[in-house]
Specification:
Layout lengths: L1 H22 L7 E10 L4 E2 L4 E4 L5 E3 L5 E7 L2 E6 L6 E5 L3 E7 L4 H4 L1 E4 L2 E4 L7 E4 L23 E4 L10 E4 L12 E4 L2 E2 L14 E7 L2 H4 L10 E6 L10 E12 L9 H11 L15 H5 L3 E12 L6 E11 L6 E11 L2 E2 L4 E15 L4 H8 L22 E2 L2 E2 L7 H7 L1 E18 L6 E20 L5 H4 L8 E25 L2 E23 L10 E18 L3 E12 L8 E12 L4 H4 L4 E15 L12 E3 L5 E4 L2 E4 L1 E3 L9 E14 L4 E13 L2 E5 L9 E5 L2 E17 L3 E18 L10 E6 L2 E6 L7 E4 L1 E4 L5 E7 L5 E2 L8 E6 L4 E11 L2 E11 L2 E3 L1 H4 L18 H6 L12 E3 L2 E13 L8 E15 L21 E10 L1
Parallel strand pairs: 1-8, 14-17
Antiparallel strand pairs: 1-2, 1-5, 3-4, 3-6, 6-7, 9-10, 11-16, 12-13, 14-15, 16-17, 18-19, 18-57, 19-20, 20-21, 21-23, 22-23, 23-26, 24-25, 26-27, 27-28, 28-29, 29-30, 30-31, 31-32, 32-33, 33-38, 34-37, 35-36, 38-39, 39-42, 40-41, 42-43, 43-51, 44-45, 45-46, 46-50, 47-48, 48-49, 51-52, 52-55, ...
Helix pairs in contact: 6-7
Membrane topology: Multi-pass membrane protein
Family: Belongs to the TonB-dependent receptor family.
Organism: Niabella pedocola
Length: about 1000
Amino acid sequence: MKCIFRRKGLLAFLCLIAILCSRFQVSGQQLTNARGTVIERATQKPVAGASIYIKGQMTGTTSDADGNFHIQLPANAILVISSIGYKTQEIAVQEPANLTVYLEQSAESLGEIVVIGYGQVKKGDATGALATLKPDPLNKGLQVTPQDALVGKIAGVNIVPGNGAPGSEGVIRIRMGASLSASNDPLIVIDGVPVGSGAPLSSINPNDIETFTVLKDASATAIYGSRASNGVIIITTKKGSTKGSKPHINYASNFTLSQVPRYYDVLSADEYRKLFAEKANAPADFQLGTASTNWQQQIYQTGIGNDHNLSVTGNPGQLPYRLSAGYTSQNGILKDNNYQRTNLGLGLSPKFLNRHLSLDINLKGSIERERPVSNGVIGSAITFDPTRPVYETYPDSTGLGYYVWMNGGKPVTLAASNPVADLELADKLDQVKRSIGNIALDYKVHGFEDLRLNMNLGYDVRKRNYSETIPDKAPSMYTSNRNDGRGRLLTQDDQNTNYIFTAYANYVKKIAPKHQVDAMAGYEWQRFWYKTVPKSVVKGVDDTSVPDEDVLYLLSFFGRVNYSFGQKILLTGTLRADASSRFAPRNRWGYFPSAALAYRLADEPFIKNSHTISDLKLRLSYGQTGQQDIGGYHPYLASYTISTDAARYRFGNDWLNMYRPNGYDPNIRWETTGTYNFGLDFGLLKNRIIGSVDLYSRYTRDLLNRIAVPAGSNFTNIIETNIGDMESKGFEIALGGTPVKTTDFEWSINGNFTYGTAKIKKLNTIDTENNYVKTGTISRNDFQVQKVGETPNTFFLLKQAYDDNGKPLEGKYISKDGSITSSEQDANKYITGKSSRVPYYYGTSTRLRYKQVDLGINGHGSFGNYVFNYQQANQALISLFSSEKVSSNISRAALERGFAQQRYFSDLFLENGAFYRLDNITLGYTISKLWKDDAGLRIALSAQNLHTFTNYSGVDPEIYTGLDNNIYQRPRIYTLSLNLNF
């Protein structure tokens, strides 16, 4: 492999030298002089700082304070004059000239078309809270999954990236989410196809994405009604080019190295031997090993990866097309962890019937192959005795050559398994094949062009095959499975299909010079189906797994009316009616209305004549959205499950499997969220600075919740039902601009800040001070609760007692009456008022360009949330030696703390989770013209996850659940990128 990389590197270097040499040619053309003044047409005032450059070259200048400029250029050249907030001008210069260039204010940003639910709208005409992001090709770092492009980029959208496993998806929350037990994931729509849950984005190639549109308030999302309570993310993929018939080819590649940012600070072998002799209280005949093993170094590696993407676009015979192919292979920082993805895509956008009929075809397929690893090896490597060797030989091939904990010549079943063996002996393969696509027809009716008819047929088909094989006598087979060394074979085949049909009519009519109506009405049908076939094989044990299959239908009618008066007063009203087969017929339908008002003040005299404010729009909206995504597909129906072989009934000489009834609620119904939103969009200094501010208040009723019920009242002690209310409030600020823009130098900067809070208002039929629902579970211990008056996922712990010197007293806590107690019962725990939910989060992004060199820096952070360091709470001096005669390592912090036993519920381990992460720094060089004008090359170096600024004592504070336990660290990644266009 090293030889291959050397050859590729030499080839790339030689190509770069040849390209650079071809760039520096001496031109013998005679130059002419051009002088001029740049004037704003509306005010007749000079424009300072306007860029004036020769088209097709990097040569240029800028206008001075009086709008004047001077430039030398070849004969018959074209001058390009541009400035932020103005339309760009091109002027042909054939001889020495004195020019007066008039620039008109540009409404380009306001006229930009953004995708909304079932249609499009000009950005300046939008009445709801929405944000559009087009990934910056020059400042993005390594993006393995599409959500990587959104991290820290949009106010109100908090994305906790996936763990360190390559290809892992993180958590997306828009305005914290509106539910408790039901899904808080936003609805994701890809080219008009709302996709289901279960890693909906991992199979999509980020290089195929053109734009993200995030709908945040109910006015924007209510048109989707069902599943829109938690926001909507609309993804539009790249289309074929409509310019020219010749094909345009783009090739992009990334070569990466991934490293572990930091190790857990545990004792070395020598330190451990010394501590063991002093504190372990082991019998005299117990001997430590003679090895010095750094178990963390044994399980981690430097991960090598590469990513290749090829696309071809063209427009032969007025048939715009785009073909794309991508391949990603990334090794994780844990050994034997690998992720591969192959993508193919096709897009066609022809027009027929004199351009009245538009056809849009999008087809995408992917194959993902992952060799996953268990996070349990991380915990094992942290605590495994450093004096033990990795490899050892035992009689009868026990352990297959790896060290195994033995006692009396037999493996210890309650000991930790050898983490290196767990990685190298387990053969796991998770393969997902997915195809997603749609055919959309849009017909502008002949003779009645104000009316458009649209139909969309879409599908999302996913097949997953998982297999796991562990051989007989592997170390882990003595500590799990049957605990007797017998190997294991697990397989599971999953199939998911999602079909959708949408049809709507759109009528746009300008009634009078200042009045315009845009009305839309439609129908939608969607079908979800899944089938799961699990199988478990253990020698001498019958497989009792049972296939599972079910189907879900959604049926909808929807409509929207937009009214505009003079492009200043904008009104929007929507209504959607949804039916879900999750609910009984009497509760099946939910109705979700919304209304919004926007007032554009840009044309008012006090704004129009302002030199500071260039755009201003006020927005006010209210709407309702629904939620039905909880548990199985039919929680209202009585159903039965076949028993396992451990719960059979004897009938004569036969043992029969029985069917047991499941819990259900026949009255379960829609969860409903109502949202008020007030927004302000603005532009300053001719839109050199643009931004928005949003304030919202949201109330969710009839929460879909999992609650405990009295014994005997149902067939189980926990059911899914509607109970509880929750209120949330917040505000969002987004700000961006270009402080400096000249021909040679440009600096852009963007930032956003979000505050959001949520309080549970009702949780049970009758709420009392002592009512709460436990959550946040690790090893059957619950560390969080849901309680009325508190933020969801509030920590429920014991208040640690300290001595006069501030040192924690082991096993001593402050009870509710202020006395000191040793009891760790729930009665002595308190509501900490601290939650894992993130109330404050922000993102920053900046890019600088000087001629052909660019530098981009991105980062994001949060504060106000808390993390429980279970990794530390689980370590104490008692861990040094167990009754099973097993020795284990501890951290240096546990040694300094000096606790003899684990104190899992002490708030000593509850820490502030505030951080700021330097996501990536990218340095690039662009060659705009290679062998022809439209050929270009960009070379970039980037470093990702460079540093995290935090006071958290663990390895990483960015944990969505707030529970730090065996976290697969996000790696530090170094990337070499090449991007070739021709």
